[in-house]
Design a protein that fits this description.
59% of the residues lie in helices and 0% in strands. The longest helix has 16 residues. The protein starts with a helix and ends in a 12-residue tail after the last helix.
Amino acid sequence: VRSHWSGIIHFVETKITNGILEGINSKVQLAKRRARGYRNINNFINMIYFLCGKLKFDYPLYFT
């Protein structure tokens, strides 16, 4: 408890946790697992945006 005392006091004063940041970090790690084979960093960044934004793209019903 003594080693974490300043963090405990900070939470009591501000009521702010790092839960949101941990959630975003989890999404980035998921994107890293899915990103194997991407050729550049821009595609990886786009995957993070898709996952964090909860974007979904339906498959086309027919091919043209």
